[in-house]
Amino acid sequence: MANLKKRRKPIKRLNDAMKRRTMIACGIIALLFVLLIGRLIYFSIFKNGIYKRQVLSQQNYSSETLPYKRGDILDRDGNTLATSQKMYTLVLEPKNILRSEEVQKSTIDALHKYMKLDEDKLLKFIKRHKDSYYSVYREELSYSQIADLKDFIASDKAENVSGIVFNEKYKRRYPNQSLASQVIGFVSDGTIGTGGIEQYYNSTLSGVDGRKYKYLNEELEQDSSIVEPENGKTVVTTIDSNIQKLAENQLSKFEKKYGSKGSSILVMNPNNGEIYAMANSTSYNLESPRDDKNLLKKYSQSQVNKMSEKEKTKAFNEIWKNPIVSNAFEPGSTYKPFTVAAGLEEGILKGNETYYCDGYQKVGPHTIHCSHRSGHGLITLSQSISLSCNDALMQIAAKEGKNVFARYQKNFNFGNKTGIDLPGEAQTASLLHDAKDMTAADLATSSFGQSFNCSMIQMGSAFCSLINGGNYYKPHVVKQLRSSNGEVVSNIEPTLVKQTISKETSDKLRKYMKETVDSGTGTKAKMKDYTAGGKTGTAQKIPRSAGTYIVSFCGFAPVENPQVLVYVVIDEIQRDSQTNTGLAVEIAKKVLEGSLKELNVAKSSKK
C-alpha cells in the first residue's frame, strides 16, 4: 500500500539569484510608476497653460464685422446735407429654430409679437431653409422696428427663443434729396464716393470697420472681444443751404418758363474763395441716383425709353457731373473787364480814353462785328464795358499787344485748373492761345471772350480777384473737418494764390461795372437796398453758322465792398431769343438780393 502512495514533489525554494531579479523588477515597476506620477503632476501643473492654448487653438473662432459710420456732410451752419443711418438685417437660423417644438414656437411667437411678422410665412420660410444656419429674412430695418424684440431677447423671458440675429450696416441718407446734388455726390456700394464731396473727400469720410470675435477662453467657456469701429470724419462745407435753395428755385422757375439746353448758377464769397452755392438745372435725387426719372431733367421720356444700358450709363454720368466745374465754353463778354484790367495795370490805359465804334473792325482779311451792328459811336473806356462794345475792346487789345494780353490771361489763371476741392475739373490750357501762336484775329476775338474756353469756376474765381482788390483765392467747398464726436480736427483756411492786379485797378473796374447796372446792359440787376455791378456776356457757339448762343451775367454787390458774387450761365434759351442776356441778369438779381439778406450784409448807404 505504501508503495502505491504517490511521491510528493519537493518544493523549490527561491535562491538568492531569483530573489535579486524579483526585487529589481519590482523596483523598476515602482520607479516607472513614480516617474509616471511625476510626469502627470508636471503636465497638469507646469504645462497646463500650454496645452490649454493648444486645445483652444484647435477650436473654431467666429467673428462679426462691426461697420463704421461714414462721416456726415454739413452746410456752413451745421445743417445736415448727408448722413449715415444705422440699419438692421433680420437673419434667421432655421437649423437652430427647428431643434425643438418649444424653441420653434417661442421664436415664431416672439417675431410675430414684437415685429408683427406673419406666423405662417415665418414657418414656411424656416422649413424651406431647414438646413441653414444663416438665412436673411428682412433687410433695411430701422432701430424702431426691432427695438422691442431686441429688448425681449436680452431679457430672462426669452430663454427658449433661439436663431434670431440682427446684422448692422449703415445706409447713406440725403435729407434734402436733390439739393446741391452735384456738389455733394453720392455713395456707391456703401463705401465708394461718386462725384462731388463724397468722391473728393472719400478717404476723410471713410472709417475703419470694427470686429467682434467669439472664442473659447482658458476655462473653455465661450467669450468674446470687440475691436471698436473707427468712424469717418465730418465734413463742414462752405455751402449755405438757403442760398443753394434760392438758386435752384430760380433755375427751376426759369426752366419751366423758358427752357434751355442747360443752366447754372455759381455763388461765391469774393473775399476768400468760399462757394455758397452751385446750382444746375440737371440736378438729380441723391437718394436714388440711378432712377430713370433723373434723366428727365435732360432727356425726354421717349429718348430715355430708346436708350440702351450703355447709353443710359453715359447719360447718368452726364447728369451726375458738375457742369460748373467740368464744362468749358467760350465766356463771351464777361471777359471784357479782364482785357481792360490788363491795359490799366500796365499803364497802357489811363481811364480817360474814348473810342469810336462804327459797328465793326477790319482785322487783316477779317471783318469782326460789334454786338451793336449799327455802332455805339463815340464812347468812353467805362462805356466799353457797360455797353459791351466789341469794337472798343478790339482796339484796346490791339494797343496792348498779344504778349501783354496773353500774360494777363495766364495771370488771371485762365487755362489752368483752379484746384477746387471737387472732382472732374475741366482742363482748358490747350484751348488758350500762347502769345507766339496768337494771330491778330485771335487777339481781336479773345478781347471780348471768344476763341478760347474756360469753365464757370475759372471765370468766377478770376472775377472775384477783379473786384476784391486783386487777390486770387483758391475756390473751395469745404471749410472744416471734425471728428465723429464733433471735435474740430482742422480748419481749412482760405488760400491766397496770387495778386492779379492792384487795388487801384480793382477800384476802377468796380466803378465801370457799376455803370453796367446803372445805365448799361445790366440794368435789370438794379436793387433797392444794395448797389450792384457786373458784366453781361453773349457767346456765339461753334459752329458759328448754327446761330446758337450762351448768355451769362456775372454780378456782385455791394459795389463799395463786394460780399457776394453771382454768376449765371444759360445755354441755348428755348422759348425766347438765345441772345437775351436780360434773362440771366434777372436771375442773378434775385439770387444776389436773397443772398445778401441771408448773409445779413448791411444795406448800401449810397447809390
Automatic annotation (TrEMBL):
Q: Where is the Penicillin-binding protein transpeptidase domain?
A: 264-593
Which residue intervals define the domain Penicillin-binding protein dimerisation in the entry? 69-217
Query: What is the protein's major site of localization?
Result: membrane
Kindly name one Pfam family recorded for this protein.
PBP_dimer
Statement: the UniProt record of this protein carries the keyword Metal-binding:
no
Protein's name according to its UniProt entry: Penicillin-binding protein 2
Which UniProt keywords are given for this protein, alphabetically ordered?
Membrane, Transmembrane, Transmembrane helix
Q: What is the species of this protein?
A: Anaerostipes hadrus
Transmembrane helix as a keyword? yes
- Give the UniProt subcellular location, in the record's own words: Membrane
